[in-house]
Amino acid sequence: MNNRGPIIRMSSSGTHHAGGIGCCCFRCCTCIHVEFFKSLPGIIKICETVISGLIQSLLINYGLRYSSTIGSAFEGSLTTASACFLTSALLLTCYTISEKSYKLIKSSLFEVMFNSLACFLYLSSSSYLAFATKLFLMTEYYLRPGFDVYPAMTAAYILSGVVGVLHGADAYLSFVHYKTGR
Asked: Which residues, 6+ apart, have CB-to-CB distance to 63 below 8 Å?
């Protein structure tokens, strides 16, 4: 006969109690959810935000002067990059500051819908910008030395394809999280 009694294990509902940055023998900035940065959704969200900002910067710094030449492909890419950058940056900030926000938003339908829409918009604007760049800017690039808009727009549509795939992966992970409720 075993006289030890029941074993009670306490499980934490999250990692926020261990949040912040460890400095010597104490923790500072405990409002920061550092564990999020170490997770796969955190790494994906950081990459989405950084790449979206880079695309927006390329489009504004190099493509704005030639927006009339490129046409609506430029406008669609800039709108997509701006909207997705703002939303991803806002979500990243919320997830960084509050683990509770991360759990509530990630388990809602918002993340699934946003990432699915962002995936579609990035992939479609990437292909349209690639078509317009090749059609309208490639000949000028080979004829005029120092024509730097063609490489910048090429980088913009390639990065748009990459971040579109990232949003697709994030949509899948969000859907799995939504279905399991964890």
From this structure: 70, 74, 78, 149, 152, 153, 156
45 beta partners: none
**How many angstroms separate the CA atoms of 98 and 101, rounded?**
5
* CA–CA distances in Å: residue 152 to residues 76, 130, 180: 16, 11, 42
Predicted TM-score of the model (pTM) = 0.83
108-162 pLDDT per residue, tens: 999 999 999 999 999 999 999 999 999 999 988 988 888 899 999 999 999 999 9
| Amino acid identity, position 109 | L
Residue 166, Cα to own-chain centre: how many angstroms? 7
Q: Can you list the alpha helix ranges (DSSP code H) found in the chain?
A: 34-38, 40-58, 67-70, 72-97, 99-106, 109-136, 138-143, 149-180
Sign of CA pseudo-dihedral 80, 82, 86, 88: positive
